[in-house]
Fold:
Amino acid sequence: MNALLTAAHLIAGEGSHDDKGLTTKSWIFPERAELIYGILASLIIFAVLVKFAGPTIKKGMTARTERIQKELDSAAADKASAATEASDIREAKGDIAGERQRLLAEADAQAAAMIADGATRLDEEVAELQARAAADIATARGRGTDELRAEISRLSSTAAERAVSESIDDATHQDLIEAFIQKVGASA
Amino acid sequence: MTDARIEGYARALFEIARAEGSLDEVEDELFRFARSYESSDALRNALTDDMIPAAKRQAIVEDLLGGKATETTTQLVSMVVGSGRGRDLPAIIDVLVDRASKSKNLEVAEVRTAVALTDDQQARLGAALANATGKQVNLKVVVDPSVLGGIIATVGDTVIDGTVRTRLDQLKARL
Structure:
């Protein structure tokens, strides 16, 4: 830039040259010519920039805009997807609650059925055991009665045999023999 | 022993007794010996034990019957026991008795009583059995205390039971 300004000053012939170089009258503003040349140079440079760098910049900006737009679209899509997913989750949550209720109801029903079935089976088993016990008691009673009867019979017969054998004296023997002979003789 | 062998022994004993002229007596003694044999486990074991030598078994027979039975009876029993046929002695004797009775046209009538019968009772009983069965009988009396009282008579397949034992058994069965 300084080189350009120096060149502009040389072309314009303005300012003064001394041993210390060019100097201006104001310590704030440059010389008029310098200002004009500076503005012109700046415009030229700006035009060159617009001419050559503008499309690139514009293209970059457009690309950036598109990229940002794409990111925005993507974010919107993500947002929509998240909303959908949230909706699904909420729906699924509702379904889970319903499924939970259904499973609980089913479990309750199964438990009730099992309890009822168990109670029925228990009642049947109790009835069966009672019947079997009654039968066993009856059998044992019958067996006891039979055994008692057999024992009484055995004792009775033993006692009868002993009593008879002790009561049969010789006279009785003879009576029995004579009775047999008469009976056989009369049976012809 | 097979029936043929029992029959053979019985026929041999029968012929010997008849040849000796003492068939009735021998037959009666053999019958009573057979019943004693059946009722005595000790006698049966002694006469059938193969570990006892035959001579010893024959000596037992001669000790038992010597002086109480005829010589023929003793010799016949001794012969059967000595030949190792002691177990079949009752069967052989029963066939012999039956053969002897048949030879006289008689039917064996086995009579069991608790006490011995008098000769008069035996005669009347024989006549009564003959009257009842229609057969002349060869009366064989066995004193058997187990009948307790009364008489049981077996003539062939006919059994006439008038014993106290049977009545007690009937009572027992009824009980």
